[in-house]
Amino acid sequence: ALHEKFPAKKITCISVSCDYEGLDEEPPESKKTAVMRFLKSTKATCTNLLLSDADIDVYETIGLAAIPAVYVYDAGGKLIKRFDNDAGDYGDEGFTYEDHIVPLIESLITGEPAGVGNDLE
Length: 121
Fold this sequence. Notes:
The chain has 121 residues and is an alpha+beta fold. It contains 4 helices and 4 strands, in the order H-E-H-E-H-E-E-H. The strands form 2 sheets. It has a two-stranded parallel ribbon. It has a two-stranded antiparallel ribbon with strand order 3-4. The C terminus is likely disordered.
């Protein structure tokens, strides 16, 4: 939805599948059919990556307890915010695109503080 909402020249969306568990009998490629089915069902139009590193290794490397997580970078490639619910900051429901991510992206695009003068739909 973000990829559709914002102009391609303003943002780039990339999804990453962390479905590979590191099992020899189930190589990363074995996850492709299920991942593609999910992406098609959600009408994803952005770039999608299927990791070839085991999920637990990825989580340890980036210091993430669980998915989902969303990373928002500015135009210069600086990480602005990582959205996750590792610390329970977003309650039982977790973060949402509408309430948390879209306002931040709009503020980065417009230069206005998040939630001020932005169309939050």
